[in-house]
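Retry 2 of 3 after timeout on previous attempt. Resubmitting structure tokens to design endpoint.
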């Protein structure tokens, strides 16, 4: 799903905070530019498709959004933080296990940043917190980080 669909979903979160809880995950492939530089953009596209399929395998339909480049947002509704963290670790392990027949020397890792929606925050603040958690994860690479104030 697209960036516009994500913005629509984030707007819906703000309107629906009384009945549901939300957790946002921002995920991206570590050193994706190097994948494109070393193996070509066609292989980069293959990697993006494989990555998105892994993300979709752990999420409900219509909750995975490509935000830009190799960055994806995952929106979990009424899930416990422990469940989301466990799902992210499963996705990370699946990414590590990816092998590409055409480029067997190509391996991938990914980083995940997680934040929970809490009143009185708005959707933009939720995104900023998930992005900060992703930034922390990207410093270590190949890990999952939860936003902590």
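Retry 2 succeeded. Sequence:
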């Amino acid at each position: 799903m697209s960036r516009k669909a994500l913005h629509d979903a984030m707007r819906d979160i703000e309107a629906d905070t009384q009945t549901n809880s939300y957790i946002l995950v921002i995920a991206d492939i570590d050193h994706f530019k190097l994948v494109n530089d070393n193996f070509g953009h066609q292989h980069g596209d293959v990697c993006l498709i494989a990555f998105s399929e892994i993300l979709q395998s752990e999420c409900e339909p219509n909750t995975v959004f490509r935000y830009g480049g190799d960055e994806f947002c995952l929106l979990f509704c009424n899930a416990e933080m422990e469940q989301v963290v466990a799902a992210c670790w499963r996705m990370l392990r699946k990414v590590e296990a990816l092998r590409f027949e055409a480029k067997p020397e190509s391996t991938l890792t990914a980083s995940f940043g997680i934040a929970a929606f809490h009143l009185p925050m708005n959707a933009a603040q939720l995104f900023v917190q998930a992005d900060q958690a992703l930034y922390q994860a990207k410093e270590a690479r190949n890990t999952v980080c939860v936003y902590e104030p």
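Attempt log closed. The CA atoms of residues 53 and 71 lie 14 Å apart.
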